[in-house]
TrEMBL record:
This is Amino acid transporter transmembrane domain-containing protein. The lineage of its organism: Eukaryota, Viridiplantae, Streptophyta, Embryophyta, Tracheophyta. It comes from Lactuca saligna (Willowleaf lettuce). The keyword NAD does not apply. It comes from the Eukaryota. Its main location: membrane.
Amino acid sequence: MKPEINRDSIATTALLPKSQPPENEIAGTSSLSGAVFNVSTSMVGAGIMSVPATLKVLGIIPGFVMILITAFVVEVTVEFLLRYTNYTGEANTYGGVMAESFGKFGSISLQLCVMITNLGALIIYLIIIGDVLSGSQSDGVLHSGILQECFGFHWWNSRAYSVLFVVIFVMLPLLLLPRVESLCHASAVSILLAVVFVVIISGMAVYAMLEGKTQELRLIPDFGDGFSFFNLFTTIPVLATALACHVTIHPVRAELENQSDMTSAVRISLILSVAIYFAVGFVGYLLFGDSIMADMLVNFDETSNSPGGLVINAVVRLSYAVHLMLVFPVIFYTLRANMDEMIFQQKSLLAHDTTRFVSLTCVLLAFIYFVAIAIPNIWYFFQFMGSTTVSCIAFIFPAAIVLRDVHGISSRKDRVMAIMVVVLAVVTSGIAISTNLYSSIGNST
């Protein structure tokens, strides 16, 4: 028996509930290309640097297959969400769809997961930008940043001051734009920079091949030296985090001139992102082999043996850092909207309240900055985030909506697929968390 829906109590808890007016109040102005750029930008983020490390664990062939499987599951779950969006004319957001299926508990659960995921991702973005500009230290080895390599070590190019400059003069102006569609040009540039990054490291790989300096590629996993089969599952949260785009689907869709184009935009974005991940993963592994770090940018410092020298290494790191600077506002947009919905439920649209809009933006940005400076390495948190909140947002919640089926529109094929997605997400996340905990305890011991 399907639950009765109380139309008056359904919370329109959007991923962008107050910063976006209802769809019938605003004409769509964004094009298909703009939607593709914004969705692709949400995919090609910090995860791109970890793809070569996942190929080191999985091997080239299983790694490529796993990327394709993850992309397929993402496409399926996005289609689930879009099918239930606006079915009754009311639920036009992810939060609204969750509220229709599971009430206020569902919408709040989604918002908490989105806020935790986006907050963690933005902190990681600033940490990576700080690593590029001001260097980092890993296992007692100091990896200098671009500013230190160019100007030496000074107080003004330390992590705290370099990141503060980026936050004030790059991030803040973009974050004060009230509409996500206004970021499509920045998103286009960010995708272009990602392509430039791929082209440069591909050129480095070709040069290394001509010089005979490429590393031996592992086609399948190597189970020697105590490597456990369960370690393979730790790569899945990384790929899921890399390709998950569910939190940007509805805000981008709301501004599309033809909202039926959203499915095509997602598929094009997935193809583009998978191609970039294939290229970066293969080339990075080819250049550095088993010495590849979890953050590949660390391999491009002045002590690396990569072909190209300091100038090309600096261009590689800087292009990716600028890419993250332009991805940052798109992710921040949904975080701010969800935070506003949680705190100011009865207030007017966020975009129409300048004081609240600016205040919330500055408070969130300041918090992200101070955490990124205080905690210079949170990669373990990044792994656990991919196993928990990202898994819920990208896989478990969309599949649960289909299984709940409050409108009676799910086919048997849909329900079977939804069950498979839930089982896959729960099993792989559980194994990944357990393996990471076991490894952490073993290392500390």
